[in-house]
Structure prediction request, 254 residues.
Amino acid sequence: MTEKTQSRCPTGITGLDNMLGGGLPRGRTILVSGSCGTGKTTLALQFLMDGISKYNEPGIYVTLEQSGDEIRKDALQFGWDLPKLEAERKLLIIDTSLSKIGIKDFITTLPISPTTSFSLLPDEFDLNKIVGLTVEAARKLGARRIVVDSLPALDVLFKETHDIRRALVNLNYEFKASNLTTILIGETEDEDGVTKIPVADYISDGVILLKNNEALDMRTIRIRKMRTAKHTLKPQTYEITPKGIEIKEAKSIL
Ligand SMILES: Nc1ncnc2c1ncn2[C@@H]1O[C@H](COP(=O)(O)OP(=O)(O)OP(=O)(O)O)[C@@H](O)[C@H]1O
Ligand SMILES: [Mg+2]
Prediction:
């Protein structure tokens, strides 16, 4: 393996890896942002699935919004059997989803030392604690890839914007210190692609934007920034297929 390939973390989406000159910068934090239904969750799951199947790199999925079961069900549509990978200790889902608000008899299984998927009650929500547990679980599983889906949920979970900023700076620091390659999922409200939690654009080492163009019945992906990487700025069209995200015509830039 050359130094170049070691410094890259392929997403498994060939066209995107071509746009990135081989993959995401390893050990960095990348924001994947777009409006609703653009395929952010699919892209992030594909990144974890490919890490497991092709590179033997376990991964952790932290869901702040959709429940773990919903994610497992949706993933199956693309042929990704998450429970099997969880049983094999290659994937861990940390479910802190808001969907549990109001479920009083929900039994908390907060592990002191996590090695399997678990859930937290909303009352227990503490992003710094979740980051700490994720790092610990990553060490035990040998995980190299992390997904946090999605940041707008933090708006509901934090009272003050500066608390979100502080927690995200800590997350970024801790994940990087453990050399974890992280996809943070953000959301954009409008066509110009400004993320709802703007601090995420600045703390992230890279920003990938997904866009639906309803009028042209077309989806486009573009890389807004990617520290340490030569990449194309040109938007490419993509489709969501039963196998996941497929980018059209993105030739390698190397
Ligand atoms: N099996 C499938 N085949 C093709 N396209 C699909 C399939 N399943 C979902 N899609 C498309 O993917 C979109 C949802 O993808 P995904 O959940 O990854 O988006 P998202 O950006 O995470 O959405 P949200 O903002 O709601 O979280 C759907 O709106 C649909 O257009
Ligand atoms: Mg999603």
In short: The chain has nine helices and twelve strands. Residues 40-41, 149 surround magnesium ion (ligand 2) (CB under 6 Å).
